[in-house]
């Protein structure tokens, strides 16, 4: 009997699969090897675009009875299970002065969108395993699911477990979304109860706590080499446990997802179009290759910065940086005005800093003049503005 079944190449063809595998590799490198938050966010945006298009097409086809019963699980593995380690925000960076203080990077819109996508897809999975799977078409020789190994997809116990598990994941990703949303809107200082919860779970921005540091070590473990460059000379049992923890957090889920996808495609005898015959596969593959190249370039730039980053030691063109980071087009007059303002600020800061330096060294009887009343047409000094801002920061605020 011929068991060959025509699958959907735009959802899980070889080009789509390779593109998503490359996307995962890019995210893995950026999370664990000094990737910048900006690049991580850009790669996550690409993940979101691919994941949304694949999952939305799968949901529409499934609700209309136009998909195979195996399609949803394959796409869920590729878009959700493969990237679960990116769904929570426990990335930390040292401050600019390298004083040992770590801060959690603030959640951004791509992370919020990813949480919402994961939650929606998981809740839809609960409906699929209860009802939607009966509406889908079966492969020629019966549907086989896989969690590394293959088994009957229509097994009643499996469907109950999958439905409950999907709803549970939907709730977890929904909580991530709420917590990240609180951190996104509230900023670093807030008395809102949701922000307290978010900080205690270390998902929002703000000063680190003991719980935050504990979760950082639990859910974002570092390799032993990150602590000591010669760790391999004094390998300990604790290092073995740390490697095991790193594997479980970062690699176990993707290995299960990738092996299960390939097993389902093989055991269900699914055939898809070639890469060159499907524009969707080409787009996914090119996106994945681009993200991986960007991640590798940033990783190498960080490791060999003294060799490949010599030009970075030169003064930056502030106007170019301004234009690059501006959210709207800027006219030359606007740039000139900003540059003049920056020049004035720098000049005032240097004068104030020089005066403070003379005072600290005891060079002369330096005394701060009495604070003058600031009236119309009077420009406050930088020191006065600092004091005013500090007083405003410490003043209790209504919530």
UniProtKB/TrEMBL annotation:
Presence of the UniProt keyword Repressor in the record: no
Record keywords, A-Z: Membrane, Transmembrane, Transmembrane helix
Composition bias, Basic and acidic residues: 360-373, 383-399
Membrane-spanning intervals of the chain: 12-30, 72-91, 111-130, 160-185, 197-219, 240-261, 281-301
Coiled coil ranges: none
Region of interest (Disordered), residue spans: 360-399
Protein name per UniProt: Uncharacterized protein
């Amino acid at each position: 009997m011929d068991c060959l079944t025509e699958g959907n190449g735009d959802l899980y063809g070889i080009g789509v699969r390779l593109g998503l595998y490359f996307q995962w590799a890019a995210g893995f490198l950026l999370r664990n090897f000094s990737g910048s938050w900006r690049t991580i966010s850009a790669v996550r945006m690409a993940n979101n675009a691919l994941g949304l298009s694949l999952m939305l097409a799968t949901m529409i086809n499934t609700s209309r009875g136009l998909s195979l019963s195996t399609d949803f699980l394959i796409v869920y593995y590729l878009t959700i299970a493969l990237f679960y380690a990116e769904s929570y925000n426990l990335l930390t960076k040292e401050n600019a002065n390298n004083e040992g203080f770590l801060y959690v990077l603030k959640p951004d819109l791509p992370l919020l969108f990813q949480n919402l996508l994961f939650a929606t897809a998981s809740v839809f999975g609960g409906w699929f395993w209860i009802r939607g799977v009966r509406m889908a078409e079966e492969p020629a020789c019966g549907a086989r699911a896989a969690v590394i190994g293959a088994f009957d997809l229509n097994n009643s116990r499996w469907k109950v477990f999958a439905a409950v598990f999907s709803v549970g994941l939907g709730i977890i990703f929904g909580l991530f979304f709420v917590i990240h949303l609180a951190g996104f809107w509230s900023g670093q200082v807030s008395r809102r109860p949701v922000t307290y919860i978010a900080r205690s779970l270390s998902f929002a921005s703000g000063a680190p706590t003991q719980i935050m540091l504990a979760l950082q070590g639990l859910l974002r473990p570092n390799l032993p080499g990150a602590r000591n460059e010669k760790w391999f000379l004094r390998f300990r049992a604790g290092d073995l446990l740390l490697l095991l923890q790193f594997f479980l957090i970062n690699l176990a889920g993707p290995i299960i997802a990738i092996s299960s996808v390939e097993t389902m495609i093989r055991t269900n005898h699914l055939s898809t179009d070639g890469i060159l015959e499907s524009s969707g596969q080409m787009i996914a593959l090119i996106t994945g290759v681009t993200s991986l190249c960007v991640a590798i370039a940033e990783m190498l730039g960080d490791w060999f910065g003294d060799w490949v980053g010599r030009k970075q030691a030169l003064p930056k063109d502030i106007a170019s940086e301004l234009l690059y980071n501006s959210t709207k087009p800027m006219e030359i007059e606007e740039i000139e005005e900003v540059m003049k303002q920056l020049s004035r600020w720098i000049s005032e800061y240097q004068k104030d800093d020089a005066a403070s330096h003379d005072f600290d060294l005891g060079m002369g009887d330096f005394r701060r003049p009495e604070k003058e009343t600031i009236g119309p047409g009077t420009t406050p000094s930088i020191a006065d503005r600092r004091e005013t801002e500090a007083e405003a920061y410490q003043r209790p605020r209504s919530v």
